[in-house]
Structures are given as structure tokens and as C-alpha cells.
Amino acid sequence: MDINLTLLAQAVVFAAFIWFTARFVWPPLMRVVEERQKTIADGLAAAERGMKSLEDASARSDEALKSARAQAQDILAAANKQAVQIVEQAKATAKAEGDRIVGAAREETQREVAQAKDQLRKQVGELAVAGAAKILKREIDPKAHADVLNELAARV
Predict the structure, then answer these.
(1) Residues whose CB falls within 8 Å of the CB of residue 129, separated by 6 or more in sequence, listed in order
(2) What is the domain range of residue 105?
(3) pLDDT tens across 69-106, in order?
(4) pLDDT tens readout for residues 11-46
(5) What pTM, to 2 d.p., does this model score?
(6) Which of 129, 131, 134 is nearest to 148 (CA)?
(7) CA distances from 6 to 21, 62, 100 (A)
């Protein structure tokens, strides 16, 4: 192998090229690569934070959902209890109203029975007076003998 001037010139030019590339080209390329690596690392870190935040939000929403369900169950239980109370109160009110109506009907019936008895007594008294008038063949004045008729009606 022959080492000649051409090979030596190529070696010097190649060394100058390496020096020029290392001095002026390589540092900006390395800065761009490092910036890109940093951007990628920041993106990955942000993605991890986002995933953790998503997991935390999911856990919080599950807890909120459980709490809301428990609250809904409590509300339903309270509503059912209140409905039962309202039904019981309505039953009690209806029973009281029914008892009042039955009592009023009994009083009305007793009044009507007493009134019917009074009318019957008067009619019996009038029949007795009419019968007595026929027996005696004379007219008896009911106004004049009201006391006697009332006493007779009371006995009947």
C-alpha cells in the first residue's frame, strides 16, 4: 500500500471536516436532539400525570356515585316512611269521621224514634178521646182537656 500525497490530503480534509462538523454542526444538532428529548420526556410526564388525574377523578366519581346512591336510598326510605305515616293518618281521620257520622246517624235515629213515639202517643190519645166521645155520645174538646190528653199520652 502506497501512501501518497492524495491520501494524505484526503486525511487532512477529512480531519478538517470532522473538526468543522464537531465545532459548528454537531452542537446545534445536539441542542435540537436534547430539546426534543426534553419535550418527549415532558409529554410522557404530562401523560402520566393525566392518567393519574384520570384515575383520581374516576375514584372520586365512584365515591360520589356511591354517596348519591346511598343518599337516594335514604330519601326513598324517608319518603316511604312518610307515605306510611300519611296513610295511617288518613285511616285514623277516616275512622274518626266514620265514627262521627255513625254517631250523628244514631242521634238522628233516636230523635226520629222519639218523635215517632210522641206522634204515636198523640194519635193514641186522640183515638182514645174519639173512642170515649163515641162511648159518651158527646164531643170532648181537645183544647179544654189537653192536660188529660197529655197524661193519657204519657201513660201509653
Answers:
(1) 140, 142, 145, 149
(2) 5-155
(3) 999 999 999 999 999 999 999 999 999 999 999 999 99
(4) 999 999 999 999 999 999 999 999 999 999 999 999
(5) 0.44
(6) 129
(7) 22, 78, 133
